[in-house]
Sequence to fold (150 residues):
Amino acid sequence: MQIDFKKIDLPFKPDPNTAMPVIEVLNSNLLLSFESHELNDYDFKNFKIAKIEFVDCLIYRIGSPNDEGFYLFGADPKINNDSIYSKKAFPDLDFDAFYKVTGVDWKNNLLGNGTKVLNGQYKEKENFNHFVFFMKDGTFECIAKEFNIK
Fold:
């Protein structure tokens, strides 16, 4: 199956100088919080904490690639990227962007360093979605039923 990325437009972008996002697990939901700015704030003066809630989250991870691993993977052996995502592999992807992903066998490809399983066991994946959010210091990836902007 071919891997497909559908970009999800958000009313904000992660701050380019922000630290890793904060994860809060609320029963079976996950709340992703990070510093952000409005889309037309080119001077980065109007910061706010953006929050995205992932409903009935099964699995999540925060890890590679960061911005360097995304753009330079394969060009510099010192750059770490232990994921399948890179600009070289997927030239149409944008960084600091949020996507719904199809075509990835997440039961085999999402498990690795930094992966957290919330429910203790997997459910049937037909009712779940695969989301990925590329940020400066790392990539957030999860399997959840849906998401809500808070």
